Structures are given as C-alpha cells and as structure tokens.
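quick one before i forget lol
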Amino acid sequence: MAPKRNLPRKHNPLLVPDKTPHHSELIKKRRLGQTTLVVKPGQIGTSNATKPQNLGVFDYAHLRAPLPENLKGSEIFAPNHNQSHPEAYFLMRRSKDGYVSATGMFKASYPWAKLADEATEREYLKTLPETSQDEVAGNVWVPESFALDLASDYGIVPWIEALLDPAPITKSTEDPKKAASIATPPKFEFSGSDKPILNPTPRGRGRPRAVSPSKVPSPRKQRTTKATNAANIATAREANATLQAALDDAASTADPEQSENEKVKVEVESAVETNGDVETTHTNVKVTMPGGSADLTLPESTEEMVAKAKEMVEEATKLEGISSSATKRKAEELDEESDSDADTEQPAKRTRLLEQEVKKQRVRNRAIIGVAATLAIGAIIPYVL
C-alpha cells in the first residue's frame, strides 16, 4: 500500500463495493480501443506528453466507470463550452506494457476534487520509482501491481481487479482490419495476495432445481446485435475523446518559455561601412546556449572553436581583399577604355557603365562575406550541439 497522504474526502459513491457490479459483469464491460494522439505542430516537444514518441497510434483497454449526476463544485470535471458534466470516466490500461492510468483512477474515484488536489497527487506519483516516465495522453501511468495498491487507497479495488483480469477483452470495432491492428495488453498474473475477492453472485429464493446431466443446455455463443455495436462505437469515441482531451490539457498548460529556453539560438548581425568606393562588412555571430541542460555537451576545447572561427573569418577577409582589388582594377580599366573611346562615346554613358560595374562588384563582395559568415556558423554549431 502506498504511504498515507491527504486525499480528497468526497468519494464517488457509485464505485463503493455495495454499488459495484459482480466481477463477471465488470470484465464484460471492458473494451479494447485505439486512437491517434495528435497536437498542433507548435506544441510538439513542449512537454512530456507532447514528445514525438508519446504521440501517434495508441492502443489501450478501458473500463467505463460511472460518475454521479451532480458534480457541482468539481474542478477536474468543470463543464466547458456549455457542455454538461460527463456521465462516466474511463479506467485505462495501455497495451504497450500493461501500465494503468493513475490519473484516470484518481478522477473516477474523486470526481469532486479540486485542481490542486489532482496536481498534488500527480506530483507525488511522479516521484515514485515505479511510475512510468512517459506521460502518454497527459496521464501518469503505473505498473499493475502498484495500481492494485493505489486502488486500495482510492477504494476501487474491484474495478482495477476487473481491468487487470486475464480473460479476453472485447474489441470496440467490428471492422476485421482495424480489430486486427489493436494490440492487447500483456497478461497479468495475480499473486496470492492480489487475487481478486469476487462478489457473491446473487441468487433467487428457494432451493435450486436439480437438472439431469443429459438435459444440461450447451452454452450459446453470444451474438452481437446492432445495438451492441452502436454502443461499442459510442463508448470507443467517448474513451478516445477522453484521452485526447487530457492530451490537449497537457499541451495547453506546457510552459512555452521553458521550451523556448531549451533551444540553441544563433544571432547574426552585420554592419556595412563605406569609404569611398570600398565597402567593409563587419559580421558578429552570437550563439546562446541553454544553461544547465544535460542534453547538450559543451566543447572540449574553446580554443579550438575560436581558432576555427578565426580561420573562417580570415578566409572571408582574403576573399574580400581580392574582390576589392579586382574592383579597383576593373574600374581603372574602364577609365582607360573610356579615355580611348572619348571620341565615339558620350561622358554620361561612360559614367553609367562605371557605376553599374561598381554596383555589381559590391553585390559580389556582400555575397562572399555572407557565405563566409555562414561557413563560420556551420563550424561553430557542431561544437555547440
């Protein structure tokens, strides 16, 4: 059993033992479902729940737990967009490893809980070594054996025992292709102390009638009616919507500043100085790293990084010097050609040709400096990342 802590006092009266259906009835209510967890592109990676590995196709088993009709005062089931309180919530077990949603257990057990109560229990569960590190669909997931201990704290042991029962689970779709793609959680074997205590099966009054062995009817195969199919589809949609809503809440409450601070920023500033016909471009490269991040490795030698950057800048300076000399020579050649053709060309035309050539060479100079700055950034980034 988990350590004692302050849990909400008001419990779901529909999950108490007196109101709980028989174990055989509960396991019949279980369904296997499949959904695709998605978030907006800008939300990917902003929290644990929105990591790429926690999104996509998700297979799970679920058991629908009823909620009280009047949930006035509840913060975890506050109505949104003129929608009433839900009639039920889902106890879930993911198919990947069989872990159970402790988030769903808490909400189903304490439907009148405050947001602070849920946050406190969530933080407590996340500190335990048994708890999964993957918050798929914004839920906290715990192993089966610990889920039974947690169910004892929450007062819903028969419900979790039914969820973990190794009997086959009905799939929520009649489509053969889709049904084949839904994975089943691994089989859970109850230990001696964890074996479910079954509720007594209600019997009618009087002594049971004796039946001749030859007249014992053979068990009939249950047929799925259209109404049952429709109910399964509706339940599957409701369960999928519950998962997606939990994921949306997790994505919307993610700290955007924290995710922004976890990025490596590269800022490039350029300034151009003109001295006559010569332009000089000064380029400053600023790399900002997130402080205290364990995922980023610092360069082993900062001297090597600085030396590499200086080498790239020197190459850029040489290229700029060559281009400037070529510009001057080209201008002198144009002046000589202009003097020799003074009798056939007008002064205005010679001036226009000279200005055009100088402008072209300035564009080339800027392009060369830009390429050099890009190469310098490319040399620095691998050391930073």
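fyi Confidence is low (pLDDT under 50) at residues 200-208, 256-261, 291-298.
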